[in-house]
């Protein structure tokens, strides 16, 4: 009996010692493990991956760049019904446990013993925050241990509301949606605050299997999960019976909602994307920067339509090039699917043709009728700009099986085609250089080359005003007489004598300087340049922003033989529009970070007469005298009223000035025009230069 008591006493001491040693080891392990954990303070100022967004001056979305779509929300902006739904199904004791739910872990352990697999993780929302922000998703015991430790640490240092906010903004919810804000936009096309109970329950059910059981991929499974969430909301008395039954009866009415672009300005968006990528690298797409441009939404929309309409109009005037392909109308779908929809031009297959109309089917399966008014333009395109005879019957234009493009125009369908000709337009504010609209080509998907800024073409007669301005600055007046007579130039660098002539091979004799510009007389321009001197002219013209190295030292300079971009020409014409000041075009007004703080604010120089309270570095420099600018403005208004741009009189406005420009063999066509509020330059031509067979005035 004594030996037995002694044995128990010794055994008890050994057990106590072993327990104490184990406690010390566990404590040391805990202290060591905690010291190795990441600093959770970073969660207080965490920067979630948010896409780059580009806006117009009036706050309309132009483009969004980034792999992950996310709309960060504060806890206060998240509907309480969604929070209740999430907690009722994912973590009932969230507000009571210290980051780890012991009962949940025990349940997961029992399940693992029963099945031999780690099918349940017992993870709380706090543990998922720890995993999503700091750990990988490998199912190992070490990761689970770190996850538990991190969750306890996070719960100790962050409020429950902050943890929920992090979770609901970080979690993946299918179809590129990260966070509940993005999920509301992608599945329902509206802000989270506008969703009803049924829709909020659908989103609350997504975390379980976002890729395979979302309502787009698997509507049946998504509805089943939504109904379970609604049931839990009702059981926990977060919604009434009437609300439960009404939400339960709602159908799964969802579809994928892409980014809702409110203004189409793809060339502008690409300019800014490239600029920010050059400055910030890949972080430009993830830091949530918002770029507010100088683009005006309504003006950009009008510019898009103007370029599209006029390029299509030019293309129609030069004839129909025939169908894209021919096929059996019943087997055309695959070929139609390979053709892009460009603006409002849709690929279609001709189904049947009668004398005065044709029927067609679009790629989307819509059957339509093209009346004779939509076919009669299609004279066959011949060589060198010539077109064939006008058709008299529809069968002379199309046949069944033709794959073509169609367009709904003026309330009726019209046969059309993708133009081969290209164009560009730049509109900017002459007072400060803000670019208010920009179009770099017919279609960005067809060609990403930005002709507004990247092309370099001869401006032709649209350059003449700068030579005339140089003449005025050297003592000429608009009434100075210049002999409009033949001239022969012996240029040693050229194999033959140069014999320039006017457009219609006419000569007018002594001609006032104003008339020489208004009627774009080549010989007057050449004689003026010859008289004032090429060196003087080049020096003066460089004040408008043209680089001296790009200005040829030859009399052909008077006819615009240099190369410029539409942007360069618009900036130069702004000097005439604003009374003689040089402004610099700019596109970005300001940039904000993900918290809305302004990171960058444009400091553009602007025209400012007699300013005393303005930073001198922000005042646009005067580059030509005010009287020269005034006289040139008067002469350029004459071009609109009586000269080569007389068609612009149809606008019934007296404040417009400008100049057309057509290069040799009609390769490039320009118009640069302005009033005190806006400067616009347009260009039309082929990317591979060849004649347009039309003058710019057309």
Record the SSE blueprint.
Blueprint: H1 2-35, E1 52-55, E2 61-65, H2 80-90, H3 102-115, H4 125-134, H5 141-157, H6 160-170, H7 180-188, H8 197-204, H9 219-235, H10 241-248, H11 266-280, E3 290-293, H12 297-317, E4 325-326, H13 333-337, E5 345-353, E6 357-362, E7 367-371, E8 402-409, E9 412-416, E10 422-428, E11 435-439, H14 464-473, E12 481-484, E13 509-512, H15 513-518, H16 522-532, H17 534-541, H18 566-577, E14 588-592, E15 598-601, H19 626-642, E16 657-662, E17 668-675, E18 678-685
Parallel strand pairs: 1-3
Antiparallel strand pairs: 1-2, 3-14, 4-8, 5-6, 5-8, 6-7, 8-9, 10-11, 10-18, 12-13, 14-15, 16-17, 17-18
Helix pairs in contact: 2-8, 2-9, 4-5, 4-6, 7-8, 8-9, 9-10, 14-16, 14-17, 14-19
What does this structure look like?
The chain is an alpha+beta fold and 698 residues long. It is 35% helix and 14% strand. It is built from 19 helices and 18 strands. The chain has helices at 2-35, 80-90, 102-115, 125-134, 141-157, 160-170, 180-188, 197-204, 219-235, 241-248, 266-280, 297-317, 333-337, 464-473, 513-518, 522-532, 534-541, 566-577, 626-642; strands at residues 52-55, 61-65, 290-293, 325-326, 345-353, 357-362, 367-371, 402-409, 412-416, 422-428, 435-439, 481-484, 509-512, 588-592, 598-601, 657-662, 668-675, 678-685. The strands form four sheets. Strands 4, 5, 6, 7, 8 and 9 form a six-stranded antiparallel beta sheet that branches. Strands 2-1-3-14-15 form a five-stranded mixed beta sheet, with helices on one face. The radius of gyration is 36 Å and the shape is elongated. It starts with a helix and ends in a 13-residue tail after the last strand. 41% of the residues are buried. The mean pLDDT is 90.
